[in-house]
Amino acid sequence: MEIKVLGRGCSKCQITAEIIEREAAAAGVPVEIIKVDNPDEIARLGVQATPAVLIGDRLVHSGGLPSREEVRSWLVPQTQPRPLDFLSHPTRHLFFTGKGGVGKTSLSTAAALTLADEGKKVLLVSTDAASNLDEMLGVELRNTPGPVAGARGLSVLNIDPDAAAEAYRQRVLTQMEATATEADRNTVREQLSGACTTEIASFDEFSSLLAGGAAEYDHVVFDTAPTGHTLRLLSLPKAWSGFLKRNDRGASCLGPHSGLKTQEARFDAALAALCDPALTTIVLVARPDRGALAEAARTCDELRELGLNNQQLVINGVFEAADPEDAVARAIEALGRQALDDMPEPLRALPRSIVPLRAFDTVGLPSLRALLTGSPPPTRQAGPSIAAPALAADRIDKLVDELAAAGRGLIMVMGKGGVGKTTIAAALALGLVKRGHAVHLSTTDPAAHLAMTLDGELPGLQVGRIDPKAETRRYIEKIMSARSPGLDEQERALLREDLQSPCTEEVAVFHAFSRTVAEARSAFVVLDTAPTGHSLLLMDATGAYHRQVTREFEGTGSARVVTPLMRLQDAGYTRIILVTLPEVTPVSQAAALQEDLRRARIEPYAWVLNKSILAAGTRDPLLQARLEGERRQMARLSNGLARRLFAVPWVPQAPVGIEGLARLLDA
């Protein structure tokens, strides 16, 4: 076995080599240790911290001295079967989807890494506008495939919505006939300027990968956005194929239909690939949690309606208490077991794999490899123990008091999927109602969990949902009613055909969002938003509409126009609440969201740290190991990341229903 020890000749590098030699001799494993001290070679191999250890092409250790147990795990082959059974006979396309926060990115990346380590050429694709693959892999994400240092055969690609939209515009304009006038080109540019074109351009990139655009790879692994957005993406091949077959006239946000007909074959090929069980596997990821499993069951049914029947289920983060006397650990295990016992029927028939809760964050190649094998991840350089910081965080009922003082306004609850946005939004709405205010609680999330979270009614609380299908029907009828007078039957039929375009849904949802925002002029509106990536696309639509309106009214002398974006920028009108968990990925994504909002001149009002178990007093060794990471995230928040911080503790009973949410406010 050839083992490379990388470093610049320091004492720790020498000790690392000696530890490997001793453990190899004790195990009877012949090894050849090669010391690499050339700085250029170390940088080329993508090593950030030394001493580092490479076995073959695998980076198994980086920074600090490895433990003896860790070295032994490198020398003894793992005989444990892989927990993801479908990796034994993987299809060409693997789609990972599920509720936000269940571990889709970790599992999809670990699966791609496993296939690459077996000698396959693998392309890992993120369709999530808020992806954190760059943080996990330590690479810069681009909209073209790029290699991953330390993982031969693995490339990563991020479908960047803005870059995809610009490339799409240029491609459509280039395909226009030479006889097209500048006026024709300007008309097409205007057609392609809407926010829905951004979504369709991303879909176009996605279709290309399914229809043979990644032929040089053995496998294409898709790390998708949370469920609602992914269902929309997976439905588009069927929707656009049908639309183009029915309509060959006029134009849409995709450009002139005459040019689109050339892409119909690709959309058909994408649909065929998705529905072919020999080519595509849908991996439904859930946690042992009632909400996550219920959403996986709904997704299972909806994907079957689309013809995607080759599905497998992965339950991630299954916890078993090590100390039967630890009340916190017992409660966490019991909640998980109960959720699995009550698993919805659609999931019971699926092939199922279990991934245990790990004691480490899945950041870096060694940890990602350890996620599926169960072997210990490389140890980091031991640092001083981090004491629990003196966190300047108030209880969530204090946040309700501050919000109630305004008397009205829009409260938008935002963050990564799975952090508890719906629970926090419902709790805030409940707190406002109990203080005597009328509240409209609504959601922009296509997956819509509000009804299940509230599980009851309360006087003064109106609960709604921006339902994409219902809003699309309403929008189409509104346009037909407004424009039909004066049109003959053929013209009305053409108008209705054009409105059947899948992009009409994006326009309709934006109009509903705008109406909901406007309601806050005279009452409280609490908006539970979709996970970060989907919300950013909605914010893009808001910005695009603002720019269009200001262009149209510029210099006309008209009365001041107030757009939805201007209302979001008004700190007296809108309060943005960022919700996170005390884990590295949710905090990093909330920080990135905060920067995105600030670039749009929208300042978040407060952060809510949800589900903290730091003060619970657990003795369980696995939970204790995870608490060290929680302390680090609390320190990040305390050191200026959050201007206002409110904390919600982990509670042994799920905060579901009016009584459960009320208990959360008092916790």
What attributes characterize this protein structure?
667 residues; alpha/beta; Glutaredoxin; Rossmann fold; 3 domains; 8-stranded mixed β-sheet; 8-stranded parallel β-sheet; 26 helices; 22 strands; 16% strand
Q: How is this structure best described in words?
A:
The chain is α/β, with parallel strands linked by helices and 667 residues long. It has three domains: 2-75, Glutaredoxin (3-Layer(aba) Sandwich); 85-101 and 160-216 and 227-356, P-loop containing nucleotide triphosphate hydrolases (Rossmann fold), CATH 3.40.50; 394-468 and 513-552 and 559-666, P-loop containing nucleotide triphosphate hydrolases (Rossmann fold, 3-Layer(aba) Sandwich), CATH 3.40.50.300. It contains 26 helices and 22 strands. Helix 8 packs across helix 22 (532-553). The longest helix has 22 residues, at 532-553. The model is unreliable at 78-83, 226-231, 249-259, 380-391 and 531-535 (pLDDT under 50).
